[in-house]
Amino acid sequence: MKKKLVSVLLVAAMGASVLAGCGSSSVKEDGGEKKSESSGNNVLEFYHGYYQDESEWAAAQVMRDIYDEFAQEHADGDVTFKPIAVENRDDIVSAQVAGGSFPDMVDVGGDGIPQAAISQDLVYDLKTYIDENNLQDAVGLNYTQHDQDGHIYAVHDQIESRGLWYNSSIFEKAGISTDAFTDWNTFGDAMTKIADLGDDTYGYIAGQGSSYIVNAIMASTDAGKKMVESELTEDTVNSDEFANAFKTAAKLDQANGSEHTTDDNGNLMAEFNTNGNVGVLFNGVWNASGIDASLVDSIEPALFPGNVAIASAGGGLAVANNMSEEKTELALEFIKYMTSKEVQEKIFTEVQANPCNTTVDLNALAETSGDTATQKLAEACAQVNSADTIVIDMKYTWGSDVDKAIVNALMECAVSGTDIDARFESLQKELLALIG
Fold first, then answer.
1. DSSP string, 231-262
2. Alpha helices of 182-294 — where are they, by DSSP H?
C-alpha cells in the first residue's frame, strides 16, 4: 500500500454544483481538470473544500470568512490571495501531480498528498519555517503525526478528535454508570442492560462506528497501537491483536442487533441526537453542535473504554515548492495566520472543531460563550487531548479501502447466527489481497 500523508477535512458531500461565498472564487471544469478563472504570478491560488452554502453547513461559511479576511488584509500587496472553493480537491491535486506540478496552495482532502508529489519534490517542507518561528505549539499534533523523516509537508488547522457520546438519562434508566467505559467487557454488559429495557431504546449505532471499536482496542496494547500507526502488513492481518479487536467488536455488534447497523453514521444520527433512543454514539467532538436542545442536558462526552481517544491531524494546508519568493512568503504567512490563537478560537467557537493550537484555552472560551453545547464541546476536546492513549484513525494509515472492508465485515457479523470466526478468515484474505 502506498505510503501517504493522511488527511481529513470535516465536510460532507452536499450537492453536485460548486458553491462559493463571500469573495471565495469558484472554478470551471476543462477536460476533467480544474482551472481557476483568473491566475498569474502575482496571485496565490488556494483550493479548499468549504464549498457548501451557509444554509447547508454554517461552518463552511465561517471558514470562507476566515479565508476572505486574510485575502482582504493582503489585497494591496505585491501578491494577492485567492481562495477557491471546490468539491474535488483530491482530483485537482492528482491531475496536477500527474503533469509534474502542484497547486499553489491546497487544503488537501481525504486522500492526502500523493506520495508522487513528495517524491518529485513538488511540495514545500514546512518544518524549517515552523521551527524558526517557534510554531510547534501552534501546529500541535501536526508536528509529530505529520513528521516524515524530519519533513512536514502539511499542517491541518483542526484536529479530528473522536471519543464517544452517551445519553445519561438512558444510562440512569438502565441502572448504568460511567463504569461502563472501564473496558469492553463492562461496555458490553451495559449495552445488554439497555437492550433489556424492552422499549425502542438500543445500545449503540454500529457499522461505521464499530470500526472505531476495532481502532480503540488495537490501541489498548503497545503492539496493537504500533500496528495501527503503521501501514497495514501481512503480519498485522495475521496478528492476535487484530483478531482480538475484530472479534470483540463483531460480538458486541451481533448482540446489539443488525437492525442498528449502518455504513454511514449519518443515516441513524437523529436517533441519538434528536430522538434520544440510543445509549451510545461513536462520533467526534463536533457532535456537540448536532445535539437537539431537548437532549443537551442528557448527552455527555466520554472516551473509548480504557481511556482511549482517536485523534488525527489530517493533511491540511500544503504549499507548492519552487514558487516565487513572494508567493511562498504569503503562503507561509497564511499557515501562521490559520494556526494563530485568534483564528483558532474562531475554529473552536464557530466551526465547533478541536483546534490544533495547544495554547488555546477551550474552557475559558466555552465559559464565556454561555452555550451548553460549546461547553460540552470543550469538555469533549479536553478529554481527547488528555487521554491516556491517543491513537491515529486507522483509515489514514491502513487506507480507506481497508477500513471499508472491515466495516462491511462487521455489518455482516451483526446478523444473528453469523459465524464470526469464518467471516474473520474471509476478511483476512480480502485485506491481504488489498495490500498485495
1. ---HHHHTSHHHHHHHHHHHHHHHHH-GGGEE
2. 184-195, 210-219, 222-228, 234-237, 240-256, 269-273
Q: Is the dihedral of CA 149, 153, 156, 161 positive or negative?
A: negative
Report pLDDT digits (tens) over 226-273: 999 999 999 999 999 999 999 999 999 999 999 999 999 889 999 999
In terms of pLDDT, which residue wins out, 70 or 39?
70
Q: pLDDT tens, 264-273?
A: 988 999 999 9
Domain 161-310+389-435 has CATH 3.40.190.10: yes
One-letter identity of residue 243: A
pTM of the model: 0.84
Measuring CA to CA, which residue among 179, 416, 402 is closest to residue 307?
Answer: 179
User: Distance between CA 330 and CA 342 in Å, rounded?
Assistant: 18
Q: Could you tell me the CATH superfamily of domain 27-153+314-355? A: Periplasmic binding protein-like II (3.40.190.10)
Whether 151 and 127 have beta carbons less than 8 Å apart is answered as: yes
Matching fold, domains 27-153+314-355 and 161-310+389-435: yes
* 113 within 8 A of 123, measured Cβ to Cβ: yes
Per-domain residue ranges for the chain? 27-153+314-355, 161-310+389-435
CA nearest 163: which of 348, 307, 18, 36?
307
